[in-house]
């Protein structure tokens, strides 16, 4: 898969811009603040319906405008597609494919990309929410139908939390108890599927993650992913409070053997463990007015040399881990996809790497069908990645 043309209207600092892209490496170069990252952010949003920079989509609309438009021509297996999304400051966003209106969440079926940016260091050092979001975005890219499962789970979670808050204020009545049990059934059904899908994804990432880390870092530090499940007792609040203190991995982890089958380590099914956890925490949930177990409270610990990377890994090791995680994701997508390689996007990466790591990264990405790179300094990027260079200045394409 590759992008042949990107068109933006009222997106970030662009009133209107047209950018052609070539197969293989494409380098967007220009001083900081000129709009390079805005271009790749737009493509990332088209693929995942989220930004790697902001959580509020209205921040991507040009100041003073009511909407911004991202339009990209895509090509794979000899087929051409025009994918568009209109980001509205108020109201729902709108999407089209080949000028036909579709549900916005269906866009992920048509465009696959993997973006790495300096913000991704938070995957290693940040809170669990970022790691959950990473796994779920990759799940949807691999299996688009899971977008619906995740959306339904969020809806059920909100409804259940509303009921718990109401019960906390008024005392749990018999009618509310029956309604809560109905929401429990939906929560367990949807949540168990998400937990099992994430476990399988973690298993599949293991091999390409090890290869990617060694390719980037030049050393084998045994990178691994260790899921922590709230239904087995992992406490998100305690994990966040522990932060980078170097404390031992908390309870609720899944053994390597159980991850490979997507089942929980107790030997029971995921759904049974989920129901047991809900029953045990019923009183605590009513006291707090919120759902305390489920995939929305899970985490995955990144391990290096058998220790949590958060709290033990150096800056360089953390950077290499985050980059390797994205390269492993791209490798997994290219193995699974019938549409070819995902578009690999590297936003301001090479400035953070020494010369040897730059060369190793260049060697690792040159095999992808299309790679988009941003850099402030042309000399930071290995020569083999500069064949198609696009200069960006003040929201305009200077030449290409």
From TrEMBL:
It holds the Pfam family SMC_N. Its main location: cytoplasm. Gene3D superfamilies: P-loop containing nucleotide triphosphate hydrolases, RecF/RecN/SMC, N-terminal domain. The keyword Metal-binding does not apply. ATP binds at residues 30-37. It is found in: Cytoplasm. Residues 3-375 form the RecF/RecN/SMC N-terminal domain. Residues 247-270 have a biased composition (Low complexity). The keyword Nucleus does not apply. It comes from the Bacteria. GO terms for biological process: DNA replication; DNA synthesis involved in DNA repair; double-strand break repair; SOS response. GO terms for cellular component: cytoplasm. Keywords: ATP-binding, Cytoplasm, DNA damage, DNA repair, DNA replication, DNA-binding, Nucleotide-binding, SOS response. Residues 242-270 are annotated as: Disordered. GO terms for molecular function: ATP binding; single-stranded DNA binding. The RecF protein is involved in DNA metabolism; it is required for DNA replication and normal SOS inducibility. RecF binds preferentially to single-stranded, linear DNA. It also seems to bind ATP. HAMAP family: RecF (MF_00365). PANTHER family: DNA REPLICATION AND REPAIR PROTEIN RECF. Belongs to the RecF family. This is DNA replication and repair protein RecF. It comes from Cryobacterium cryoconiti.
């Amino acid at each position: 898969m590759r992008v042949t043309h990107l068109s933006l209207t009222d997106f970030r600092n662009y009133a209107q811009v047209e950018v052609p892209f070539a197969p293989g490496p494409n380098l967007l170069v220009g001083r900081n603040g000129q709009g390079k990252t805005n271009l790749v952010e737009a493509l990332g949003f088209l693929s995942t319906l989220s930004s790697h920079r902001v959580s509020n989509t209205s921040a991507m609309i040009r100041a003073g405008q009511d909407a911004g438009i991202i339009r990209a021509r895509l090509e794979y297996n000899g087929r051409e597609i025009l994918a568009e999304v209109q980001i509205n400051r108020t109201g729902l966003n709108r999407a089209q494919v080949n000028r036909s209106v579709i549900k916005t969440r269906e866009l992920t079926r048509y465009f696959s990309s993997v973006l790495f940016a300096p913000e991704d260091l938070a995957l290693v050092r940040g809170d669990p929410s970022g790691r959950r979001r990473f796994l779920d975005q990759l799940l949807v890219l691999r299996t688009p139908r899971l977008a619906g499962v995740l959306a339904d789970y969020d809806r059920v979670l909100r409804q259940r939390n509303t009921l718990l808050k109401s019960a906390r204020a008024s005392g749990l009545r018999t009618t509310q108890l029956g309604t809560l049990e109905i929401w429990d059934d939906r929560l367990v059904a949807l949540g168990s599927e998400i937990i099992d899908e994430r476990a399988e994804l973690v298993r599949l990432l293991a091999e390409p993650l090890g290869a990617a880390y060694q390719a980037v870092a030049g050393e084998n530090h045994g990178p691994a992913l260790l899921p922590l499940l709230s239904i087995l007792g992992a406490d998100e609040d305690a994990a966040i409070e522990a932060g980078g203190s170097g404390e031992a991995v908390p309870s609720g982890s899944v053994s390597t053997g159980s991850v490979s089958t997507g089942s929980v380590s107790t030997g029971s099914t995921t759904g049974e463990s989920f129901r047991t956890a809900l029953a045990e925490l019923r009183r605590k949930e009513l006291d707090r007015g919120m759902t305390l177990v489920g995939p929305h409270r899970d985490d995955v610990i990144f391990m290096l040399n058998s220790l949590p990377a958060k709290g033990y890994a150096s800056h360089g090791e953390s950077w290499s881990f985050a980059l390797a995680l994205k390269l492993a994701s791209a490798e997994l997508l290219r193995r699974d996809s019938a549409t070819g390689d995902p578009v690999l996007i590297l936003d301001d990466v090479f400035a953070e790497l020494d010369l040897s790591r730059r060369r190793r990264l260049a060697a690792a990405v040159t095999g992808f069908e299309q790679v988009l790179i941003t850099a402030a300094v042309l000399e930071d990027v290995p020569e083999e990645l500069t064949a198609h260079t696009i200069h960006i200045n003040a929201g305009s394409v200077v030449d290409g």
